Write a sequence for this structure.
């Protein structure tokens, strides 16, 4: 006979002692993620307008247009993407500290990737290589790292049972495709249609695409960390104590 009540706490098989059930996670709050998307759209749109107006001879910020320029070092759009990568690296580092064994090693690798992206974006390593006639080398190195490195990271995460690893690798893959593919599009436009509006539009799409996929990567890391918590160090320790109590 049942009294119609919902499922309650489980009782130990031998002692009758109550074993608390793990609390179910509440609904995700992605407001911060959408706020970052909105900020990116507004900031990069402003950069597009200023760059285009300056290119046609009526610059609204003469001498200070670099502040909102789409790809200028020290400009707000580039700093936005850099800050998102920095947050991703910090989130991955926190996950590494809170785990142990192979999971810590996997999250440490993600932290290193995030730190590398911060450095590359901060100093514009990609543009420096292209300016030094290394366009083909840049594309080749980026493609090799994507094709070889990401599958290896995915396989390690799967083999080591790292919760959310597939989501993080997917986020990295989406960013890599956007960064490499949109760069090719921008260079093609520069050769085929080297006019102010097409060039500015291509740069806008490239830089905004990188920013949005960087935000998506940060969201993937945050969600992977949320998936990791229920199976984290604390629960395993607690499970051992409950097992010893009920044995």
């Amino acid at each position: 006979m049942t009294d119609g009540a919902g499922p309650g706490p489980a009782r130990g098989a031998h002692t009758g002692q109550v074993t608390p059930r793990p609390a179910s996670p509440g609904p995700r709050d992605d407001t911060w993620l959408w706020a970052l998307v909105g900020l990116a759209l507004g900031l990069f749109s402003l950069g597009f307008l200023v760059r285009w107006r300056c290119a046609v001879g009526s610059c609204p910020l003469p001498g200070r247009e670099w502040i909102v320029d789409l790809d200028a070092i020290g400009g707000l759009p580039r700093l936005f993407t850099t800050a998102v990568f920095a947050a991703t690296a910090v989130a991955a580092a926190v996950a590494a500290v809170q785990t142990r064994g192979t999971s810590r090693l996997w999250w440490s690798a993600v932290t290193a990737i995030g730190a590398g992206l911060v450095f590359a974006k901060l100093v514009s390593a990609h543009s420096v290589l292209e300016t030094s006639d290394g366009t083909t080398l840049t594309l080749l190195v980026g493609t090799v790292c994507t094709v070889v490195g990401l599958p290896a990271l995915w396989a390690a995460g799967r083999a080591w049972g790292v919760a959310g690893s597939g989501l993080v690798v997917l986020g990295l893959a989406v960013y890599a495709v956007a960064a490499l593919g949109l760069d090719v599009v921008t260079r093609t436009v520069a050769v085929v249609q080297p006019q102010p509006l097409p060039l500015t539009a291509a740069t806008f799409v490239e830089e905004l695409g990188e920013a949005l996929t960087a935000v998506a990567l940060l969201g993937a890391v945050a969600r992977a960390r949320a998936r990791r918590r229920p199976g984290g160090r604390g629960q395993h320790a607690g499970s051992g104590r409950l097992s010893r109590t009920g044995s």
